[in-house]
Amino acid sequence: MGRIVLLSLGLVAVCLGGGAAFAHWQGNGDGAPSAAGPGSTARPLPPPHEPPAAGRDASASPRAGRDAPPRRDEPGPPVTVPSSGPGTFTTARSTGAKTGSGTPRRYRVQVEDGTGLSAAQAAEEIERILAHPRSWAAHGRGSFQLVAEDADFVIRIATPATADALCRAQGLDTRGELNCETTDGVVVNLKRWMLGSPTFTGTPAEYRHLIINHEVGHEIGIREHMGCGGPGRPAPVMMQQIKGLDGCTSNAWPYDASGRYIEGPLVS
Question: Domain-by-domain residue ranges, the chain?
């Protein structure tokens, strides 16, 4: 980002590319690696099929038939999010197919133990998100690959208390609600991952696209946040949508179905 962002909660955002951490209302951060522990078996909802965007070969995606946005009316089971955990993490021990073109970025996925969320299944879902026809990889903004080690950045899903501790180590106050980003990668608050956002019209599964697309947007060099591009228009993925939509409609993808980049005015 290369500048200080003053948020409603007084959080400070500093660009990842500059080597410093930032926390904000949309989701991002990381702390030191923790010991691995046993995974669990909660299964995220797989999205149904959607035709690929214009000019996109669906076969280029490793899971092309499963990359569509989740149905907004799909029911979900009651979700209980633990407020804290042991602070140890399970790493998804798998290597995925490379997707996209451009600068390669290798990432690993870790999930805090005792959360009821499987690291392997979370990694599979994140892999689908990054390979989605409306995401970064499909439009030449980078090549992404899931790995178990030697990663360029880490995506870590943690309970609110653990996420706060990891972010606080970087001088960030996430107050049990927010995600944060540091020089190591991304810390996702389990509450946001499982429950979504009260300002987002869509399922938590769809909101997870927004979390990952927003944070990976910072990873690929988009330093600044955006505002609403006009009433009734889809909100940019680089907008901090949890703060409010300002007349825009909820949106979880960088590009629309025709391949047009969704953007708005830069905000400080």
Answer: 5-32+84-223
Question: What's the average model confidence in pLDDT over 50-65?
Answer: 35
SS3 content of the chain, % helix, strand, coil (to 5): 20, 20, 60
Vertex 15: Cα angle to 182 and 249 (nearest 5): 100
Q: What is the pLDDT of residue 215?
A: 86
Whole-model pTM?
A: 0.71
Residue 36 in contact with residue 88, Cβ under 8 Å? yes
The dihedrals phi and psi of 13, each to the nearest 5 degrees, come to: -115, 125
The pLDDT tens digits of the residues spanning 207-262 come to: 999 999 998 888 888 888 999 999 999 999 999 898 899 999 999 999 999 999 99
- Reported as a pLDDT band with limits 50, 70 and 90, residue 190 is very high
| Distance of alpha carbon 93 from alpha carbon 119, whole angstroms | 8
Q: What is the DSSP string of 39-60?
A: ---B-PPPP---PPPTT--GGG
State the greatest distance between any 2 C-alpha atoms of the chain, in Å, as a whole number: 47
Q: Count of CB atoms within 10 A of residue 55's CB?
A: 10
